[in-house]
Amino acid sequence: MKYKLLLFFLCMASAVPAQVIPEDVPSRFFGNRPVNVVLPPFYDQDVKRSYPLLVLLDGEYLLDPFSGTISYTTYWDDLPPVIIVGVNHEGAEGRKLDTDVYQTTGLPQGQGDQFYQFIANELIPYMEKNYRVAPFRVVAGHNVTAGFLNFFLYKEKPVFNAYIAFSPILSTDMETRVAEAIKTIQKPLYYYLATASGDVKSIKEKIGKLNENLKATENENLKYKFEEFAGASHYSLVVMGIPDALYFIFSAYQPISSLEYEEKIVTLPGGYVEYLRKKYDAIKNDLGIKIPVRLNDFKAIEAAIMKNAAYDELEELADMARDDYPKMIIGEYYQGLHHEMKGETRKAVRAYLKAYNYEPIGDYTKDVIIEKAETLKKLTE
Q1: Phi, psi of 247, rounded to the nearest 5 degrees
Q2: Which terminus of the chain is more exposed, N or C, with fewer CB under 10 A?
Q3: Is the pLDDT of residue 40 over 80?
Q4: From edge to edge, which strands make up the β-sheet containing 31-38?
């Protein structure tokens, strides 16, 4: 555990400090409710891009570790940049009032009901109006707020697409109600639940029941992960769970790794370009993030095609590259490579020379395609 914590804090220390923007969100319940917003580093430069929204309950102490993890992982393009909004509770008494529930029904009451409506009907619309928010929302909490966030699941259309519950204190019948609510969802929903070997016994018992019910839930739209951290406590599990939860929820976003290549791609009998297309469709449809195919992902599919001599797919790869990089060499490069591998030397030379009129990108340079064209010309002389 010590090693994992050390690694985490090293990652945090390496991250660029986030810019925290204080905001006052208008509310008919609270007047103006203060929150803290953290924007991605290039938010002002890339004005056409939208970002998933991460809402943090217990923002007083969850904002820094979450923003540090996001900052570090987005630097390596392992996780997507997100817009974070941390909601504070003005101390222990404010936290208690914000999460107040009826003991009999286990549903929000008083300020708890007002806080629920503030998040669902005021904070989210405010963020969507004032920031470029993608249609993918994540909520996270710890302890009592981790239990409270489950109320957003009870709607016919859940408020959030992903839920991160660190050692939740569950209200009356919540361990069964959550599973019942999830049975009927009709869109992909991520649910991350974490406890620890050293967690509070009474809390852990109900978490165990919730875990069993969620594991038994039959709904292909549910993407569920449960984690029990060995040697951790009710508090230390949070710093271990944050990267674990984010990597789980945004797993579709990650670039093709060497393991994914070896185990899932190169072993396919065909359909390598279709695999790539489905991967980026999932990023767009499930996570609400539209990005061009990464160059390294193109290279991975190119390598699989070449290794399995599936040369017809190079033309399909060329079309895909043109769609994402219409002014760059890469599309015409793959067109030329297709002709070259099919033995159509003259067509290959023409395609490579045509690529010279486009802009270089990454390793796909004008020198590379000129060298290709010159080598093939000698074969036709």
Answers
A1: -65, -30
A2: C
A3: yes
A4: 20-27, 31-38, 83-87, 51-56, 133-142, 162-166, 189-198, 222-233
d(CA 368, CA 352): 9
Tracing tokens 């292909």 back to the chain, one arrives at: 220
Verify that 77 and 124 share a domain, yes or no: yes
Copy the structure tokens of residue 106: 């286990």
Domain limits for position 167: 2-253
Q: Which amino acid belongs to residue 140?
A: A
The per-residue pLDDT for range 79-137, each reduced to its tens digit, is 999 999 999 998 899 999 999 999 999 999 999 999 999 999 999 999 999 999 999 99
- 36 and 22 Cβ atoms separated by less than 8 Å: yes
CA distances from 161 to 83, 209, 312 (A): 15, 23, 39
Q: Give the pairing of strands 51-56 and 31-38.
A: unpaired
Shared domain check, 29 and 151: yes
Across 178-197, average pLDDT: 95
Q: To the nearest whole number, what is the mean pLDDT of the chain?
A: 92
